[in-house]
Amino acid sequence: MSIIEQLAQLRREAEEEIRAAGSDKLNDLRLKIFSRKNGSLSAILRGLGGLSAEERPKVGSMANEVKVHLEGLISERMQQLKAAVMEARLQSETIDVTMPGHWQKPGRIHILNQALEHIKDTFKGLGYAVVQGPEVETDYYNFEALNIPANHPSREMWDSFFLREGLLMRSHTSPMQVHIMEKHEPPVRVIVPGKCYRRDAVDSTHFWEFHQVEGLLVDKNVTFSDLKGTLDLFARRMAGPQRKTRFNPSYFPFTEPSAEVMVDCFVCDGKGCRVCKNSGWIEIMGAGMVHPKVLKGVGYDPEVYTGFAFGMGVERIAMLSCGIADIRLLFEGDERFSRQF
Ligand SMILES: [Zn+2]
Known about the structure:
By secondary structure, the chain is of the alpha+beta class. It contains 11 helices and 9 strands.
């Protein structure tokens, strides 16, 4: 076979192979044809030496033409394959912008935290510091230091969860009164928000965990009038400027005198309704003057210093202000409930 025939055959065969090649084969094919060492074109051109001086340029230019032609075919095929890959990708990654999207519901601050923030803001405005304390307490801080000795009948007011080694889950935030006074000299002016635990049977107004805000102010010349003025202002901040407060005598072992703080019903304006049980008044917290025994216990001189303390349930405040009838709703985490506030 002459060189010209060989070149023509190479051209025909290579054309077919290139057209059929996938992208993985194309590079091998290029080497198979054009490699200087063992490519099929080089092999043919090795025969050039045996040609006459007349034939040589003719065959040389034909070989060049075959080379350019096949190179062109290869790069054309390469483009074709790349375009096919891109096309497939575009097809598979199509985004239909008319499809409905996924809506993320925005989060909300829980009604309890809203009430808590409101309470904190009010007292911060009066110069109170906000402090927190441990939820696990000793019998001493939860009871003894608050003038509630062992076997005292008033312990029945706090049905507690006892842990090992004389520890218990605090049943009120009042233990922090003692912690704070032990660590600080008067004047003291703090509120203590926090979780408390009681072994109560769960019903619409009782839950085994709840939140309290304790308040404590100790200084020289603090009187019951200061307590009344402070809590009167608080009640009006929480329930509206037209509200009135009333202080009924009550009993707590660690305050003397003690009072339950009532606000005139903001649902019926004091006329009587279901919320206020037709009395026209709603109890919002307990309060009183710090008992001299408690002051003495932390090393304060009750002849020099006096103070008042108060404690309120955050759940109760939230339920009253939003007309929520069942405390359990606050802890269920049902979004249909919580997003209403
Ligand atoms: Zn009422």
